[in-house]
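We were asked to recover a plausible sequence for a given structure. The inputs and outputs are reproduced exactly as logged, with field labels preserved.

PROBLEM: sequence recovery
POSITIONS: 378
GIVEN STRUCTURE:
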């Protein structure tokens, strides 16, 4: 049944959310000044106009609760309402973070027992997005349910549902980002508890091996994503320095094919031209944000080479060739592999140029750990 809640949720994240999150670069050190600098950089770099509008504060903003139980910020965030006003004045939206447990993953105050109160506080500050991270609630599940997995699962669902309802009751549109690492096939029930997006895996880090382990493990999940509710293979590491340019290009290509949320996780105030080009290639971002809202999937894998395809509005397809080998490889796309005719038009989106197929196939040299992203249209 399509409930009014579900309609509101779909409109909130009609395409995968885009923006920035503090965790991957700043982790526990993030301050009000860092968040303002990120907001400034989103505007000055052109990222806001490319679609990156959420400025998301991750864990470690939380202070103690006052005598009435109202959550306070800690000294790194002197005035959350003023910060929200600042972010909004730039044409951006502000996100925050909490946990259904009593403690967040970094050991700060979570929302357990204060869900409605916290939702009201967030709405009062002007918050537009909440990442809700299981953390210590996992221990509560273990303590209360022991080996009874059905009971533990019911507790988990109820905890997410509770915060979703609390957010909706505030009357403020707040994107609900579930973070419970993909447990219990969250993609099957995330929409039921109001999730606009849900993490499908454990944490990413700034290494090619972990990024690809997460990214390529998304095969088969496409049918669970759509407007208002997205699979989330975690935030971007582009620009953090641990991968080569080709590896980061693979990261951006794969996340776009996956219709993944695009939350930059680097220090936006210190971006190289290369990082900006990777994050802001218009045609690549358009693949991720395509209004049809279909996640792509693997078409074939042969040894270290993989072909993935994503349906786009208007009948076109985005097609990615990935080379996971540690040497460059020639890869061949047969247009029939993706259901296209031999006369289909091909555009190499990273190169920004039309390319030609011969006898219904296209062969290209893909660098080590690299990717080529094509748009195929009839
Ligand atoms: C968990 C989440 C991360 C981040 C940290 C913060 O590990 O998966 O994305 O939010 O908590 O403590």
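RECOVERED SEQUENCE:
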């Amino acid at each position: 049944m399509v409930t009014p809640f579900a309609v509101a949720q779909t409109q909130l994240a009609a395409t995968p959310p885009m923006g920035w999150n503090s965790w991957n670069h700043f982790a526990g050190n993030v301050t009000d000044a860092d968040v303002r600098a990120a907001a400034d950089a989103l505007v000055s770099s052109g990222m806001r106009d490319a679609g990156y509008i959420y400025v998301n504060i991750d864990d470690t903003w939380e202070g103690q609760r006052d005598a009435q139980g109202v959550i306070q910020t800690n000294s790194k965030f002197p005035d959350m309402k003023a910060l929200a006003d600042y972010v909004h004045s730039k044409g951006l939206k502000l996100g925050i973070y909490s946990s259904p447990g009593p403690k967040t993953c970094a050991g700060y105050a979570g929302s357990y027992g204060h869900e409605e109160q916290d939702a009201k506080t967030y709405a009062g500050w002007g918050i537009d997005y909440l990442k809700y991270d299981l953390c210590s609630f996992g221990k509560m599940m273990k303590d209360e349910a022991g080996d009874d997995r059905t009971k533990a699962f019911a507790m988990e669902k109820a905890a997410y549902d509770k915060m979703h309802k609390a957010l909706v009751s505030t009357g403020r549109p707040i994107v609900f980002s579930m973070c419970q690492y993909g447990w219990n096939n969250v993609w099957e029930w995330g929409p039921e508890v109001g999730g606009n997006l849900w993490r499908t895996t454990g944490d990413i880090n700034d290494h090619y091996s972990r990024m690809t382990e997460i990214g390529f493990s998304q095969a088969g999940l496409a049918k669970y994503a759509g407007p208002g509710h997205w699979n989330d293979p975690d935030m971007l590491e582009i620009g953090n320095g641990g991968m080569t340019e080709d590896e980061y290009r693979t990261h951006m290509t794969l996340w776009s094919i996956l219709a993944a949320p695009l939350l930059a996780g680097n220090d936006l105030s210190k971006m190289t031209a290369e990082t900006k080009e990777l994050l802001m290639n218009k045609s690549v971002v358009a693949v991720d944000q395509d209004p049809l809202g279909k996640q792509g999937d693997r078409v074939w894998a042969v040894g270290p080479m993989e072909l993935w395809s994503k349906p786009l509005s208007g009948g076109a397809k985005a097609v990615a060739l990935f080379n996971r080998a540690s040497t460059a490889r020639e890869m061949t796309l047969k247009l029939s592999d993706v259901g296209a005719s031999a006369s289909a038009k091909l555009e190499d989106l990273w190169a920004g140029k039309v390319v030609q197929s011969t006898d219904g196939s296209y062969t290209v040299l893909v660098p080590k750990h690299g990717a080529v992203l094509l748009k195929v249209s009839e």
